[in-house]
Request: fold
Amino acid sequence: MSPFGISVALLTPFTESGDIDLPRLAAHARDVMDKGAHGVTLFGTTGEGASISFKERGPALGALTGAGIPADRIFMGLCATSLGDVLAQIDQAIAGGVTTFLLLPPFYFPGPSDAGLFDWHAALFARADARARFILYHIPQVTAVPLSFDLVTGLRAAFPERVVAIKDSSGNWENGRRLLDHGGIPVMIGDERLLHRAVPLGAVGSICGMANLHPARMRALFDTAREDKALSHEVDVIVSCPFIPALKLIMAQTTGHAGWERVRSPLVVLQDRQRADILGLLPEGR
Reply:
């Protein structure tokens, strides 16, 4: 599947009781697809994937496919540190028709070596369902486990049928540029402010949070490789705050559904100055 295009890193809505609001999740996925997104990603960082239990994942996937989202347009975020737990998440999603996964590295033990990370990935690929394909996920500011250039290119070279891309969400242009210049692995750029620079160099798309709010604009940015300066400014403000509560606050305000603002602990809703900063991004009257 190339290019990957714009996959929306779906926000996860919650009910007042704290459960996933499945009808709202499915309706949101359908809406962003209808507005131009190429696909959606469940339970990545933006979707609070680390706070979603195994038993919640299957019904959420079923809600999306039941709403007419093709399974081959859904990527599933994987978030666990043991191989057994990751494999269980893979098998569950495969049963629902999903075969492409956004794969976090094991993130508990500090400072793993490239050799240790290579062995972990190799063991996973050896045991995972043969249909599973993986997008490596480089987001060291969250995991504290960077995926080095040598590790990424080495995994791609060793497992070309398994490793189909890397998502670089580091925000480090030099890292993304080096991967793009290498040309040995398809690159997805997570920072929306860098995508217009990356597309002419061969970037195959983005899995991004801003597409929850602006799917059509993100699609246009990818299609034209022209920066959306207003969107870049919006990103600047959002990432100056805890970004998931910030995105959810905007969703709540623009949709008129206050429930969008709910987050799962340990996240909390925005307060005071940060809340005012985010609300200042919205047109008056919203």
User: Anything to note?
Assistant: The mean pLDDT is 96. Residues 5-224 form a domain with the TIM Barrel fold (CATH 3.20.20.70). The CA atoms of residues 109 and 145 lie 9 Å apart. The longest strand covers residues 133-138.
